Amino acid sequence: MTLPENKSILIAVAIALVISLWLLSGIFTPQEEQVAKSVTEGQEHKEVHVLVERQNAHDHADIIRLYGQTKADRSVEIKAEIDGRIKDVLIEKGAHVKKGDVIARINIDERESTLKSAKALVYQRQLEYEASRKLSQKSFRSQTQLAEAEALLNAAHAELESARLNMEHTEIKAPFDGKLESRPVEIGDYVSKGTLLATVVDLSPIVVQVEVSENDISRIKDGQPATAILNNNQVIDGIVRFVASTSSSSTRTYVIEIEGNNLNDEIAAGQTAQVNLNVGMRQSHLVSPAILTLSDKGEIGVKTVDDENKVVFYPIKLLEDTSEGVWVSGLPESANIILRGQEYVSPGQKVIAMTKDQTQNPDLADAKGH
Questions:
Q1: What's residue 1's pLDDT?
Q2: Using CB atoms within 10 A of its CB, is residue 226 exposed (0-12), middle (13-18) or buried (19+)?
Q3: Contact 260, 236 (CB under 8 A)
Q4: Range of the structural domain that residue 272 is part of
Q5: Are residue 232 and residue 303 in the same domain, yes or no?
Q6: Do both 134 and 226 map to the same domain?
Q7: Which of 83, 201, 252, 327 is the 20 to 30 Å CA partner of 320?
Q8: Mean pLDDT, range 109-119, rounded to an integer
Q9: Do 79 and 16 have their domain in common?
Q10: Which of 222, 253, 279 is at the close of a domain?
């Protein structure tokens, strides 16, 4: 799931509140107070002064941030394929297992004798078939009699295979290397065909499943590097291994899976994870969060001044929040970004733009104002 829009709005509202408190706190520098004062005075004369800074865009990594959960690579429920009573349990739940390890055994009962009888019957039918074949070659037996002997031999082989499978099914084995997640049976329990005997999970590699919006799904490909951060700050470096081709009918989002190493099965399934996907470079600006504003439509954005000294509002996308500021996209390659006074002006309004150098030089400031 991508960061909801209403969350971005809440962030922007909080930023606006901080700006207001800052304005009231009186912690502006004398130069910044000059701009604030000129803004107030300018409103009375319709000549609003704003503090601007010319910025050029830079290439910055475009990161898609998603939220999901870890899950096992494989999970299998092992069910009884025959009826019988549990004779032995050899592995406790929580233990690691190797493919083929016997987890439990069901009583053999009459299955061993059935297997011996099936082997004997196959031997008998084989002799009968060979005898019929030789007699048929000498025309002492018809082709019909030979076919009947062959059918009886095939039926005996089928019975033998069934008896062998029944014997094999008395041993409950791990289907792959993994962890015995559950084993709900004990010695003496009677089980029927279909009874759940054990659950085996494979946590290596660990898988992180997330959902992607339809706006971003085309930018994600199999094999892309990805990083997942768990709630305990553990980091999983992995790759995208699956991208769904169809969206959920209810959420209109697409499922993707990221896999990463999980040595010693340290990472459990079901943990919350933030996934960061680098989908390329994007022309971006590094700005202070204090300059972010909201449009009348509730869009988060930045106000700038164009070549005609008119205010222009640009909706932006938040790419990354750092200690130095926030990286945003959506602004022109080069822009006069309003640093102070943006809360007093509206898009399309003509203003008097001043740089920091001009606020520090009264002569330049006066010249700019006239």
A1: 46
A2: buried
A3: yes
A4: 65-74+203-279
A5: no
A6: no
A7: 252
A8: 92
A9: no
A10: 279
Tell me how crowded residue 310 is: count the other CB atoms within 10 A of its CB: 15
Contacts of residue 108, defined as CB under 8 A and 6 or more positions apart, other chains included, come to 87, 167, 170
3-state secondary structure labels for all residues of 21-76:
HHHHHCCCCHHHHHHHHHHHHHHHHCCEEEEEEEEECEEEEEEEEEEEEEECCEEE
Q: Which tens digits make up the pLDDT trace of 10-35? A: 555 555 554 554 444 444 455 455 55
183, amino acid identity: R
**Total domain count, the chain:** 4
- Give me the CATH number covering residue 179: 2.40.50.100
pLDDT digits (tens, 9 = 90+) for 179-210: 999 999 999 999 999 999 999 999 999 999 99
Residues 35 and 91 in one domain: no
Closest CA to 78 of 199, 202, 201: 199
- Whether 44 has a pLDDT exceeding 50, the answer reads no
- Whether 235 and 265 share a structural domain: yes
Q: Where do we find the tokens 């503090």?
A: 51
Q: How far apart are the first and last CA of the chain?
A: 52
Determine the Cα–Cα distance for residues 230 and 233; give it in Å rounded to an integer.
5
